[in-house]
Amino acid sequence: MPKRKRTAPTAAAAAAATMSNATSVLPQKKHYRQRAHANPFSDHSLVYPSSPDSIDWSIHYPAFVNQRPSFADIGCGFGGLLITLAPQFPDALIIGLEIRVQVTQYVQDRITALRATSDNYQNVSVIRANAMKFLPNFFQKASLTALFFLFPDPHFKIRKHKARIISPTLLAEYAYVLAPGGIVYTITDVEDLAQWMRAHLDAHPLFQFVEEQELRNEGKGPILDAVYSSTEEGKKVERNAGQKWLACFRRIEVKRINT
Q1: Which is the catalytic residue, given 153, 189, 192, 202?
Q2: Quick one: which of 31, 64, 236, 255 has the most CB atoms within 10 Å?
Q3: From CA 256, how far away is CA 205, in angstroms rounded?
Q4: Is 153 a catalytic residue?
Q5: Do 177 and 184 contact (CB within 8 A), yes or no?
Q6: Other Cβ atoms within 10 Å of 224 Cβ, number
Q7: pLDDT in tens, 38-79
Q8: Any idea of the CA torsion for 172, 174, 175, 181, to the nearest 10 degrees?
Q9: What is the pTM of this model?
Q10: C-alpha 143: how far from its chain's center?
Q11: pLDDT of amino acid 19
């Protein structure tokens, strides 16, 4: 019986093989078990930079020189938003801040595995940090163009509301690190928290509500789509046919009055 000729793999087959290899090396969440939430007021033995100038960002982004993050996902969880946005915005450095040890390690291992199989994730990284403390130690004034707060801990009890990630004090820090014209993206499946975040952002003089359609008209549709559906929490809400409340605000510049 004559031997069959070997045929070269098609482009589709090669792509499938690459995807299979990437999947096989990706970390499994079952090996990174952690509580769903962490107390932001506890001492987590974290090391913070003395100032943004003391950070060597090349450790996080070896393929980039003299460039700082412009997108920051506060409480990035398992990194769904980071991984989704990285290939879509290859020239923007994207950083996730996460307080939980095992979750941060999972995201780091996930990025490392993806970098080993693709060039699309050189612009994304993660830092273990408590974003409610020392945020300006990481980011210079007006250095960010996007801040994300996706499905944050609702802290249902009234006595726990002080731990919510959106508050008058923290909004002052967010306004400091966000450049004029930059956008704060918030989304939650808890209506009470949605009303809380909207009310506090509405009350701040440096933030102005912006309609979703306006942002889509500006070309931010891919970001909004990722905000809705890229995170573990967002996907869980969809599986349970739950509702999501999106609210976006633009950082505005207020002219000072000289007296």
Answers
A1: 153
A2: 64
A3: 12
A4: yes
A5: no
A6: 18
A7: 665 555 578 889 999 999 999 999 999 999 999 999 999 999
A8: -160
A9: 0.85
A10: 16
A11: 43
